[in-house]
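Hi there, hope your week has been kind to you so far. For a while now I've been wondering how a particular protein folds. I'm sending you its amino acid sequence along with the backbone structure tokens. Could you read through the record and tell me how the tokens relate to the sequence? Take your time with it, there's no hurry, and the full record follows here.
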Amino acid sequence: MDTDRSDGTVFSVGVLGPLIVRSEGAAVPVPAPKQRVILAALALRAGQAVSYDELAEIVWNGAPPDAARVAIRNYVKRLRHVLGPVAGRRILTRDPGYALDAGPDEVDALRFTAMCMKAGQAVRQVHEATRDQAMGASGTWDVLSEALGLWRGDPLVDVPSQMLVAAEVPPLDALRMQALEWRMDAGLAQGRHAELVGELTQLARDHPLRERFHAQLMLALYRCGRQAEALAAYSGQGACWWTSSGWSPAGSSGTCRAGSSTGIPAWPLPARYWPASSRSALSRGSCPPGCRISPGGQPSWRRWRHGCERRQAPPNRPGSR
């Protein structure tokens, strides 16, 4: 997002993918590798001073030369020239080094982080029942869709600094995974299960050990009336978990299976999104032993699910008799 500041300049830096700078509506290429490293380091700490020593460590991956300070000055001078008279003024000399004069909305990684924090607050408010769940899910979906849309590829993909990549990319990747999970939860709460099946299928395939995506996929399939596929997804993923990590799914996906195996959803969802067979079963009062109907018309699965989990034997481990 380009931000129009009070002085009339429009500027943005993107690091969620190849490094990109935009100034006055035009892309500004930064071809020199070390200049890209310096600009990325300053952008990720926008508004804060980054010392000469820190920049030297980042630029030379922990082995700076003796004349590193002089070299950093020269790189910054050339970078300012490359950025031009408008964007170049954004790089400030600030003791003990340099700072990028930019706000959080002008650096995509900072904007992404701020939007995820906003969405996280909405998620907590919904869980604490301090706001309407449907309204909370709608707002969370919109914020996270916009935030995830800022990603253009792997962060810092063309910034040649192992130290910077190692320090910055893992937290960004982890936050992106959390944002994807929250967005899928918000979409399911809105009844978007049909449109999410394809995306969740790909996410579950790309992240086979990310249990939440598989649980969400099973739930989406079930809510689409594809119960057999939901159970098949659970069975296949259970074997994968045993093979890959020596444990079986017992959390959210186990809960999802408990509901699917009986034909009634295990997770809260407005009745209009339930398969017709489930709605008619509940209307006839055919609820499994231990299941209660809450005042809001939702089945309570806690006692019944725990009983099922005690009765279910775990799958045979490879090599066991």
Remarks:
- The mean pLDDT is 78.
